[in-house]
Amino acid sequence: MTINAIASTGRIQSAIARAAQRTGIDFDYLLGQAKVESGLNASARAGTSSATGLYQFIEQSWLAVVKEHGAEHGLGWAANSIGRNSSGRLTVSDPAARQAILNMRTDPEVASLMAAEHASDNKAALENSLGRDATGTDLYMAHFLGLGGAKQFLGAMQANPDRTAASMFPAAARANRNVFFERDGSARSLSEVYQRFGDKLGNGSGNTGPSTGNSLPQMQFAAQALSMDGSTVITGANETARDALAWANSTLGRFTGAKTQTPQMQAASLLRPSPDNARLAYMMLASMGG
Questions:
Q1: 186 CB-near residues (< 8 Å, 6+ apart)
Q2: Which CATH architecture has domain 3-206?
Q3: Is the pTM of this model over 0.70?
Q4: Domain positions in the chain
Q5: What's the start-to-end Cα distance of the chain, in Å?
Q6: Around Cβ 223, how many Cβ atoms within 10 Å?
Q7: Please, what is the Cα angle at 116 between 147 and 93, to 5 degrees?
Q8: Burial of residue 230 (number of CB atoms within 10 Å: 0-12, 13-18, 19+)
Q9: What is the pLDDT of residues 113-144, one digit of tens each?
């Protein structure tokens, strides 16, 4: 991986962290969702639908969330440009404005904010419907199938987890065959599709509210960037990227891993001036192209 690619990944992760901070949606969930959707490629485009960008929003879903939340984030012009036709479909009368709004799906800052707002809306609706806290996987199902589809999926899975998922969602299955079917062509059950997404989301599969772990996730970006194959970030002390990664993880663990520390105490220990803190800050900036 090139320095430019590492810097790009760092900027994307920073955008996600800012969206998490502004909306209260867990950073790990938003990062996991972006990894599942696009592999952290802000320009990704699907071959079987209109899905585009970091979070692979299709056109109607994107127009809906921008209409609802754009003005909150300085995009009033976009929100005001979006209307509905007689059939309820979201439209933009000015072709140039429509294209500009859709193009924002490839902007990491805007895409992350809209994904977080979309997750927040879905979280409230799902929890009201399910009568329990929504998990990260529940939220991902709402992103993947739409809110109505997610409610249908989760309700059916609770009643009959072994039911074939493709039989309930044939259109989604045609567009996402690798999700609904095994490599040998056998159909996955509802619980298998759900578990597959949970596994892919990783740490974010169970989190939807504000993060309660390391209060400075940006400090981990350097370690993540250094772990990428081909990294040539200069880490100091003439060690390899692998050695620097091991040091960073060890140091972060020493600062934030004590079970007796509160998140506030952990943050304070990271912010306290020291050579180790300064080096972590350097590594963070290097990973983001600073």
A1: none
A2: Orthogonal Bundle (1.10)
A3: no
A4: 3-206, 218-287
A5: 17
A6: 21
A7: 70
A8: exposed
A9: 999 999 999 999 999 999 999 999 999 999 89
